[in-house]
Amino acid sequence: MEAIAAGTGNLGLIYRTRGQLDRAEEMHKKALAINEKLGRQKGMANQYGNLGAIYQTRGELDRAEEMHKKSLASRRSSAAKRAWPTGTPASGSST
Description:
Blueprint lengths: L1 H16 L3 H18 L2 H18 L2 H23 L12
Helix pairs in contact: 1-2, 1-3, 2-3, 3-4
């Protein structure tokens, strides 16, 4: 499924480059849904960012800002999971 999400997102990038923003948006939303189902924060962050870029190109700045904020939140969540493996206290204390 990860490969399908990546391929779908890549198609979105092609469509965006061609100026086919509606098709690009559709592909990125599909890739986002797959990544959400898999719980892949990094993939979700990428797709939120791609959607933000589409909305920004369209001049839909409020929607773009929302997507970029979601992308940042997903990246932070992903980074936090890498920094503190399961079972490790996030506070860094040994007690």
